C-alpha cells in the first residue's frame, strides 16, 4: 500500500503541530508536491547537497528537516552556487522537503524534551512560553448502545485530558428526537415518523489543535448518518506552550561535573562554559539552537545553569554579570532530535515506508585540544 505526502505531513503535524510554531516561522512543505508518493523518508537537522545525495542513495524521496531550506526569499537559483545546486538536485530527483522548526522545538517530544531527557531532568516545564493551549468543549449525543464506543474513540484521539487524568467526560441520559425525511437511510426509525431514542449526552474537553482528529474519530465511531454535536471555545487557560524546558537534576552537582556529564550525554567534542567550576547546579534550563537572547528568562525561571548554543562574547559576559552559569553546547546539538522523529514517524507510518536518520554530519565546527 502506498502512502502519499499528505499522510506523512499529517503524521508530522500530529507530532509537531504547526500551531506551536512562532509567527512567521518557515515551516511546512517547502519543496515538492503534497500528493507525491512516499517511497522513503530521510530525517535530518539540515539539508545540504550531501544530505540530498544521501536521500537519493537511500531512495528516500521525502526529507524531513528541522532547519528551513528556504528562509529568506530566494533571489536566484544558480547552479554554479551551492544552494542553487542543491535545489536543482532536489527538483531533478523529485525530492520533497518538509520542515518542522519552532513547532518541533516546542513539541511534547521535540528538540528540547529530547535534550532534557538525555540529561535525566525531572519535572520539566516550558521555559519560554509564547502561547497557551486553547481548549474546546465537545458535546455529542449518542444512542446508549454506542456510548462506550464513541467515548473510547474520542479519548483515543486525544480528548478528555485534564492534567494527568485521561478519559475525563461527563455523561447524562435523556431522550433524543428526530424525524427521518426523504432521502435518508436512518440507523433507527422510519422515514416520516417521529422517533424517540434514549441517548447519552457526552461532554468532554479537547485542545484546539486536536479538533479535526477528535471530530473525525467521533464521526467514525458514531452510528448515526447525521450526528448532532456541538463544539465551543472555552475561556479556561490551557497548558503553556513554547520552547526551551527547565527541570531538575535528581541530585545537586557542580558546574564542572555537570559540564562533563553534558559533554558525554550529547557526545560532544567540546563545549564552552561560563561560571565557576565549583558552582552548585541543580535546576537546569535548556534551549536547543540559538538561545543567547533568553539568558534573563532562564535566570528568572530559577535556573542554576542554562544550556544553549551560539553564545557570543558579550552575552557570555552578561550571563556572568547576572550570576547565571552557561554551557554553550553548540547549535548542532539539536541533531539529537533526528532519531526521535525517525522513530515516531516509523511507528505512525508503519512498515510500508522506511524512515532513515541522516548520517551526514552537518556541524561546521571542529575542536582540537585535550
Ligand atoms: Zn536550530
TrEMBL record:
Keywords: Metal-binding. The keyword Metal-binding applies. A divalent metal cation binds at residues 66-67, 105, 331, 334. GO terms for molecular function: metal ion binding. The keyword Glycoprotein does not apply. It comes from the Bacteria. One of its GO terms (cellular component) is cytoplasm. SUPFAM superfamilies: NIF3 (NGG1p interacting factor 3)-like. Belongs to the GTP cyclohydrolase I type 2/NIF3 family. This is GTP cyclohydrolase 1 type 2 homolog. The lineage of its organism: Bacteria, Bacillati, Bacillota, Bacilli, Bacillales.
Amino acid at each position: 500500500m502506498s502512502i502519499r505526502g499528505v499522510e506523512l505531513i499529517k503524521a508530522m503535524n500530529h507530532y509537531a503541530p504547526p500551531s506551536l510554531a512562532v509567527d512567521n516561522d518557515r515551516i511546512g512543505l517547502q519543496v515538492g508536491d503534497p500528493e507525491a508518493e512516499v517511497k522513503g523518508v530521510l530525517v535530518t537537522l539540515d539539508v545540504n547537497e550531501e544530505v540530498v545525495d544521501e536521500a537519493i542513495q537511500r531512495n528516500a524521496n521525502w526529507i524531513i528537516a528541522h532547519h528551513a531550506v528556504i528562509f529568506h526569499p530566494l533571489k536566484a537559483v544558480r547552479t554554479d552556487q551551492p544552494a542553487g545546486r542543491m535545489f536543482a538536485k532536489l527538483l531533478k530527483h523529485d525530492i520533497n522537503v518538509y520542515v518542522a522548526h519552532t513547532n518541533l522545538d516546542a513539541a511534547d517530544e521535540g528538540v528540547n524534551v529530547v535534550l532534557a531527557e538525555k540529561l535525566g531532568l525531572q519535572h520539566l516545564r516550558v521555559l519560554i512560553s509564547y502561547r497557551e493551549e486553547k481548549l474546546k468543549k465537545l458535546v455529542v449525543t449518542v444512542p446508549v448502545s454506542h456510548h462506550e464506543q464513541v467515548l473510547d474513540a474520542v479519548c483515543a484521539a486525544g480528548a478528555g485530558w485534564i492534567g494527568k487524568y485521561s478519559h475525563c467526560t461527563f455523561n447524562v441520559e435523556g431522550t433524543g428526537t428526530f424525524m427521518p425525511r426523504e432521502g435518508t437511510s436512518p440507523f433507527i426509525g422510519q422515514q416520516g415518523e417521529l422517533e424517540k431514542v434514549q441517548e447519552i449526552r457526552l461532554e468532554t474537553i479537547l485542545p484546539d489543535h486536536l479538533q479535526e482528529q477528535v471530530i473525525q474519530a467521533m464521526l467514525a465511531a458514531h452510528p448515526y448518518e447525521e450526528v448532532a454535536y456541538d463544539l465551543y471555545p472555552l475561556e479556561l487557560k490551557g497548558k503553556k506552550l513554547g520552547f526551551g524546558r527547565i527541570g531538575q537534576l535528581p541530585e545537586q552537582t557542580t558546574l564542572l561535573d555537570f559540564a562533563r556529564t553534558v559533554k558525554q550525554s550529547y557526545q560532544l567534542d567540546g563545549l564552552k562554559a561560563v561560571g565557576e567550576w565549583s558552582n552548585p547546579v541543580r535546576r537546569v534550563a535548556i534551549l536547543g539552537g540559538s538561545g543567547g537572547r533568553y539568558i534573563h528568562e532562564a535566570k528568572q525561571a530559577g535556573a542554576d545553569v542554562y544550556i544553549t548554543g551560539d553564545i557570543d562574547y558579550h552575552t557570555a559576559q552578561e550571563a556572568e554579570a547576572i550570576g547565571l552559569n552557561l554551557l554553550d553546547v553548540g547549535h548542532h546539538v539539536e541533531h539529537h532530535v533526528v532519531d526521535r522523529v525517525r522513530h515516531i514517524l516509523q511507528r505512525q507510518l508503519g512498515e510500508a515506508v522506511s524512515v532513515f536518520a541522516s548520517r551526514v554530519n552537518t556541524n561546521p565546527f571542529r575542536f582540537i585540544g585535550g
